[in-house]
UniProtKB/TrEMBL annotation:
The chain crosses the membrane at residues 22-42, 87-108, 140-158, 170-188. This is Membrane protein insertase YidC. It is a multi-pass membrane protein. GO terms for cellular component: plasma membrane. The gene is yidC. InterPro entries: YidC/ALB3/OXA1/COX18, YidC/Oxa/ALB_C, YidC_ALB_C. Residues 253-267 have a biased composition (Polar residues). The keyword Chaperone applies. Residues 268-283 have a biased composition (Basic residues). NCBIfam families: yidC_oxa1_cterm. It is found in: Cell membrane; Membrane. The keyword Lipid metabolism does not apply. Residues 22-214 form the Membrane insertase YidC/Oxa/ALB C-terminal domain.
Length: 300
């Protein structure tokens, strides 16, 4: 992971050179990184909203097939297919973001090694508002408190727009309190630059969730979804038949053209090289039997 730390540290140092303040460089760097991965975050949020939207239908299936797990799995997968929802689609963006988060976090956690590689640490000792040194923890604990509050508000806002089942809702409520406290505890021990990053990304995430979560998911009735799926399947079958028919016609035309060329070539090869005989009939006169036996009298 060191190459990630070095890469993010180099970018952060270039931003610092343009701005001249390490604190503002951390905030701007966080905004840039969050903006780059914003499409992934939006995709993850939309996937979560879609899963939450079909939760009532999943609950109906769970009640209907509670004694038949195999049938329940089949009908649940059919429901996902109807609404084109993939339960695992929300995990992929998170997995892609993890190396970015680790690299950024590692560079901020040890700026002496990965950001200010030249050894000039005067920027870390510059005060940033109430913080005398961004390379050390916040002495007034203001940044950790802000992180806890903003993270809690973000998770609460997300839960208010979710329709999870009771078991999932209970675990979400627990995490709504546990996660902010864990981040706040780590922020107490980490350099103030890391806490500043957490504050910036938490505020950015809250604004993002506020905009994305407020957009409703247009969920059609299951009957309409089934009708649309059948129509699409029939359309796909027609297109497949048309393609097969067109391919067959092209092959037939190619075979006919090849057969025609072969026939012409064969006729040329079988044509005689000599000029054919004349069509005039040759009639041979055969003498009569009496004429063959009768000889003229030489004496007369």
């Amino acid at each position: 992971m060191h190459f990630l730390y070095q890469g993010f540290g180099w970018v952060l140092y270039q931003i610092f050179r343009l701005i001249g303040n390490y604190g503002y460089a951390v905030i701007l760097f966080t905004v840039i990184v969050k903006t780059i991965i914003l499409p992934l975050n939006i995709k993850q949020t939309n996937s979560m909203k879609e899963m939450q939207a079909i939760t009532p239908e999943v609950q109906k299936l769970q009640k209907k097939y509670k004694n038949n797990p195999e049938k329940l799995n089949m009908e649940t997968m059919k429901l996902y297919k109807l609404y084109k929802v993939n339960p695992m689609s929300g995990c992929l963006p998170l997995l892609i973001q993890l190396p970015i988060i680790w690299g950024l976090f590692g560079a901020l956690q040890n700026p002496q090694k990965y950001v200010f590689t030249s050894g000039n640490l005067t920027a870390l000792h510059q005060s940033f508002y109430w913080i005398p040194n961004l390379g050390k923890p916040d002495p007034l604990y203001i940044l950790p408190i802000i992180v806890v509050v903003v993270t809690f508000l973000t998770q609460k806002f997300t839960m208010d727009y979710s329709t999870a089942d009771p078991a999932t809702a209970t675990s979400q409520k627990v995490m709504m309190f546990v996660m902010p406290l864990m981040i706040g505890w780590f922020a107490l021990k980490m350099p103030a630059g890391v806490s500043l990053y957490w504050v910036a990304q938490s505020v950015y995430t809250f604004i993002q969730q506020f905009i994305v979560m407020r957009r409703p998911v247009k969920l059609v009735p299951i009957e309409e979804a089934e009708r649309r799926v059948k129509e699409q399947e029939e359309k796909d079958k027609r297109e497949k038949r048309d393609k097969l028919k067109a391919s067959a016609e092209i092959r037939q035309q190619a075979m006919n053209a090849q057969f025609g060329r072969s026939t012409q070539k064969s006729s040329k090869m079988n044509r005689p090289k000599t000029k054919p005989a004349s069509k005039r009939r040759v009639v041979t006169k055969i003498p009569h039997s009496d004429e063959r036996t009768h000889k003229p009298d030489k004496s007369n």
